[in-house]
Amino acid sequence: MTELMKLREEIDRIHADLERQCAGLTDRAALEAFRVEFLGRKGQIGELFRVMGRLAPDERAEAGKLLNGLKTVATAAFEDRRNDLEGTTLRARLAAEKVDLTLPGVYHSLGHRHLLTQVQNEIESIFLRMGFDVTTGPEIESEYYNFEALNIPADHPARDEWDTFYIDDTTLLRPQTSPVQIRVMEQTDPPVRIICPGRCYRRDTQDATHSPVFHQVELLWVEEGLSLANLKYIIELFVHEFFGKGYQMRLSGDFFPFTEPSVQMHMRADRASDWLELGGAGMVHPVVLANVGYDPKKVTGFAFGMGIERMAMLRYGIADIRTFFTNDLRFITQF
Asked: Fold for domain 115-332?
């Protein structure tokens, strides 16, 4: 028997063997073992190619054709079984991950605006309806805008380091939003009708009613012919809009360097209730008007400021200002 005949018999044997094994390939491990046995470098088909060197030159062409045909059959069988296994795996995965659109969805709670943001937005809305504009300014301020332009003298306690957060000798974190009023008046001719909400900073020891970081909103109206009566009317209108028509308000004398005369704003729910302080107010001091280039003989103005946290505490009966900053969902989700 010639070497070519022996090769043909071996090819037929391997062909039958791979067809038999191919039917039992049911997982990736068996498929890989099949590839190594028949198509690997040291597999059965690879070993047959080494016989080529022992064949007569005129037999090698036919032998090569037969071996390549066997390799093609083995490769095709391997690819077919691999595709079948991948398809089976994919179908099983799709079945396991199938989404039943008829099932009820899973509820995921959504966040909402913090109570302080809600209160600030409502205050802004009230004054916008009255015809005021909302303006903002930098939280890092200079001494000029925060003190000098507001007629606060150099020896005033508010300018001490134990009351104000200084960044350097002339720069600080603003303790009120009043500097915004100065910046707007410097760039705007009367009439000026604005409110200035924003974050403020003071060296207060944190307790139930004080915080080193808090939010404030201030109002400024400058025009010809304004008086304290106009200030009282605007405050009353705001109190009735924000707290309800059952509330009463009053003004009592006070002193602030940037207003003259100066007053404190108070409110109460009824005659049996205690008066509660809302904030400071007054007619804009003539020196402040002159500092921004206004003529105090032609125009007058009034201003007042209140803490947004305080407004929320009065309205919702919140006893501790620290509650606003704890991020406790038991508190936040109530509003």
From this structure: BirA Bifunctional Protein; domain 2 (3.30.930)
